């Protein structure tokens, strides 16, 4: 059979990538975010060169023609061969190989922090002309001049001539000195005072403010602009204003060391210092690392190593700052610029964690979700220390702006948030003491004051008599209903409403009403606002009005509460022990109560027990110990009260009982719950003429197996 396929005339040839000369300009522009990062990268090169210092001097910063930047270190310098085959090679693997092979620097035993080989091209971000002089021990001084404008003039990268001069006699590094000096000229933009202040902040923040790193300190001077750095507040001037400090060490899946300190100022004579250590019951509950959904987090699965975390927490409440902050504006400005949590590896900062625009832990969002507990980004100055050799799974992005988002990074982030959750829980108790001792009047008072002020504005400024009457009618009604709502959070919360949102929304509109009424022509807008507010508040107040007390069987109420939670108890494998059923006389016990509210209060207590029983079960599982989760319920009477006892064999009550019934106070981890359950239960009992209490062991007949757990008693008047 004849093969009739045509003969191929295809020609094959080998082609190569031909990088355009302007590629390096693009690297400098696109991979280096701003002038601060550009200088930071050049300073980091000095660290890699085993330098003890790097001095940055800037002259004539506001002149493109005459301005220049000089960066000089005392590191081991470079040979001509290293300059040509490493420094001039974009993406060089030289430092990466150093790291992989664990080739530590001879003097300070460092591993390189720059691995990508692109940081040096950030010099183009600063100016068009670079002159570098470098000298290593026993080698000639090397001079290199790069004119970045030539990269735009030539077509291909290989066409750009780079001259390297080996000097027989050193001109700069004399008398046996080594190091590298880079001079950048031909600024791409004029420098302004704000730019310079941002740069000095970045340069001084390259090392942790909490650690003394004598082996490496960068500095920045602008010789002919002495006033540009005036008024910059430094860490040493604000650290004493911190009311709360903590340190934590994380290894594997556990907090292995922890300390927390509350340090009132000298002016806060009514308060005392409080120190919390690893053995504290709340801390013990947080030892195992979990994410925000209570799933275990184990860092040992990755090369992250031991994490050291240290932080100082401040308070910007007006009543606190009045007690000791002399330069309030400077203090706030410092926290605005420097607040946040920075990450350091081998003492050197990983940019740009802790920058004002990078809330990498979403602290501000958490603050919005839990306004009375969570710490916002501008309230904390924190530092996380990592060991570079141990943390290789935390990979830096090419653009030098943080770590690559991989599984190791997510685990690392969850571990940090876990510690923050613990600190927030401890701080909440001390914050309450501060507010109770030195704070303003209760929240409703300023609002009531504003409403009174608003009524005066109406009298003075609203000319239309009908509109005036209508607005005043609404204001009177709002005042009455607002007080009703704030005095009885329990009703709205018992109906499943988020009270922090409720109150915030109401108060926001009240403040807006007051603001609008201050304007001369505000009557129509004010009327619309008060109408909207009245409609909003009506819904919450109505919940209260409907909560009538009736003569009810206490046993039926307890049974209903257990019936409502039956499925949850079964799902969580919790055994309810209903001792109250054993006493037949209990069936006749009746009280005048708001039935649905009391049922809700009991359910809140059961919900709390479920959570803490699960926490204890998790710890027992980790320790390979058996554990049966139980809830004990009983009803007993005395001469004056009917007592509903709810106990469990969980972790017990971790927070002080004086604090735990306050709204939004919670010992739960990672923001679980709003901290309203016990507050609601307490308010329900108060509204019924009863009380919520946490008895001492032995006050009631409760089985011994519940001694270490929580015991809560709802007492109703007969």
Element layout with pairings:
Blueprint: H1 23-31, H2 35-48, E1 53-59, E2 68-73, H3 80-87, H4 94-100, H5 123-126, E3 127-135, E4 141-147, H6 150-153, E5 163-167, E6 179-187, H7 193-204, E7 217-222, H8 235-238, E8 244-251, E9 254-262, E10 274-277, H9 281-286, E11 307-313, H10 318-321, H11 328-338, E12 340-345, E13 348-350, H12 363-369, E14 380-386, H13 407-438, H14 444-461, H15 465-487, H16 489-494, H17 499-517, H18 523-545, E15 550-553, H19 554-571, E16 574-578, E17 590-593, H20 595-622, E18 629-637, E19 641-648, H21 657-660, H22 677-687, E20 691-693, E21 711-717
Parallel strand pairs: 1-7, 12-14, 16-18
Antiparallel strand pairs: 1-2, 2-6, 3-4, 3-6, 4-5, 8-9, 8-11, 9-10, 11-14, 12-13, 15-17, 18-19, 19-21, 20-21
Strand order of the largest sheet: 5-4-3-6-2-1-7
Q: Can you say what the CATH homologous superfamily of the largest domain is?
A: Histidine kinase-like ATPase, C-terminal domain
Structural class: alpha+beta
| Average residue-wise pLDDT | 82
Assign a percent range to the helix content.
25-40%
Number of helices: 22
Q: Strand tally, please?
A: 21
Radius of gyration: 34 Å
- Going by CATH, the architecture of the largest domain would be 2-Layer Sandwich
Report how far the terminal alpha carbons are from each other. 111 Å
Strand fraction equals 15-25%
Number of domains: 4
User: What is the general shape?
Assistant: elongated
Q: Which fold name fills CATH's third level, the topology of the largest domain?
A: Heat Shock Protein 90
Outline the low-pLDDT stretches.
489-501, 540-545
Main β-sheet, in a few words? 7 strands, mixed
CATH class term of the largest domain:
Alpha Beta
């Amino acid at each position: 059979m004849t093969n009739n396929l045509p003969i191929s005339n295809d020609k094959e040839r080998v082609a190569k990538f031909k990088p355009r000369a302007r590629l390096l300009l693009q690297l400098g522009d696109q991979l280096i975010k701003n002038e601060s990062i550009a200088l930071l990268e050049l300073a980091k090169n000095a660290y890699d060169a085993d330098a003890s210092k790097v001095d940055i001097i800037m002259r004539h910063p506001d002149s493109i023609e005459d301005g220049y930047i000089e960066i000089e270190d005392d590191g081991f310098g470079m040979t001509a061969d290293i300059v040509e085959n490493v420094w001039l090679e974009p993406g060089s693997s030289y430092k990466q190989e150093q790291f992989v092979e664990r080739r530590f620097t001879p003097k300070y035993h460092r591993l390189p922090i720059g691995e990508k080989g692109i940081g040096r091209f950030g010099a183009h971000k600063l100016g068009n002309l670079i002159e570098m002089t470098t000298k290593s021990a026993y080698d000639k001084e090397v001079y290199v001049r790069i004119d970045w404008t030539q990269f735009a003039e030539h077509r291909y990268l290989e066409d750009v001539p780079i001259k390297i001069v080996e000097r027989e006699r050193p001109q700069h590094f004399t008398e046996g000195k080594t190091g590298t000096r880079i001079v950048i000229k031909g600024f791409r933009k004029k420098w302004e005072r704000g730019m310079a202040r941002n740069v000095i902040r970045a340069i001084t923040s390259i090392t942790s403010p909490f650690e003394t790193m004598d082996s490496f300190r960068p500095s920045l001077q602008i010789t002919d602009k002495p006033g540009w750095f005036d008024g910059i507040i430094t860490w040493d001037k604000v650290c004493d204003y911190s009311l709360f400090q903590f340190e934590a060490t994380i290894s594997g899946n556990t907090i292995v060391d922890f300390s927390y300190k509350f340090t009132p100022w000298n002016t806060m004579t009514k308060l005392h210092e409080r120190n919390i250590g690893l053995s504290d019951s709340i801390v013990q509950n947080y030892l195992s690392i979990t994410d925000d959904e209570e799933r275990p987090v184990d860092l040992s699965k990755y090369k992250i190593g031991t994490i050291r975390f240290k932080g100082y927490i401040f308070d910007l409440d007006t009543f606190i700052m009045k007690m000791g902050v002399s330069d309030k504006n400077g203090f706030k400005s410092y926290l605005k610029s420097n607040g946040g949590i920075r990450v350091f590896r081998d003492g050197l900062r990983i940019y740009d964690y802790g920058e004002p625009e990078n809330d990498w832990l979403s602290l501000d969002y958490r603050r919005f979700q839990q306004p009375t507990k969570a710490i916002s980004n501008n309230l904390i100055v924190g530092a996380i220390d990592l060991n570079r050799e141990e943390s290789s799974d935390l990979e830096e992005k090419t653009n030098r702006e943080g770590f690559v988002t991989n599984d190791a990074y997510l685990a690392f982030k969850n571990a940090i948030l876990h510690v923050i959750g613990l600190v927030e829980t401890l701080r909440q108790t001390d914050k309450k003491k501060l507010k109770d001792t030195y704070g303003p009047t209760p929240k409703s008072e300023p609002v009531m004051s504003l409403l009174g002020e608003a009524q005066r504005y109406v009298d003075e400024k609203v000319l239309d008599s009908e509109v005036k009457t209508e607005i005043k009618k609404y204001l009177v009604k709002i005042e009455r209903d607002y007080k009703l709502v704030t005095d009885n959070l329990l009703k709205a919360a018992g109906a499943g409403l988020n009270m922090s949102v409720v109150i915030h929304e109401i108060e926001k509109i009240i403040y807006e009403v007051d603001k609008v009424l201050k304007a001369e022509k505000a009557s129509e807008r004010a009327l619309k606002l008060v109408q909207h507010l009245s409609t909003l508040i009506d819904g919450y107040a109505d919940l209260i009005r409907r909560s009538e007390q009736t003569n009810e069987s206490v046993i039926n109420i307890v049974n209903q509460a257990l019936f409502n939670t039956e499925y949850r108890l079964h799902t969580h494998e919790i055994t309810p022990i209903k001792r109250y059923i054993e006493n037949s006389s209990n069936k006749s016990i009746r009280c005048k109560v708001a039935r649905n509210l009391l049922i809700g209060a009991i359910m809140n207590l059961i919900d709390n027990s479920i959570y803490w029983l699960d926490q204890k079960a998790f710890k027992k599982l980790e320790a390979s110990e058996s554990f049966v989760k139980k809830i004990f319920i009983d009803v007993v009477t005395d001469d004056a009260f009917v007592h509903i006892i709810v106990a469990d064999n969980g972790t017990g009550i971790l927070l002080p009982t004086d604090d735990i019934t306050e709204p939004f106070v919670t010992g739960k981890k990672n923001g679980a719950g709003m901290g309203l359950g016990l507050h609601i239960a307490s308010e329900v009992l108060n509204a019924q003429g009863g009380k919520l209490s946490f008895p001492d062991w032995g006050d009631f007949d409760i089985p011994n197996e519940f001694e270490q757990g929580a015991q809560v008693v709802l007492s109703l008047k007969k």
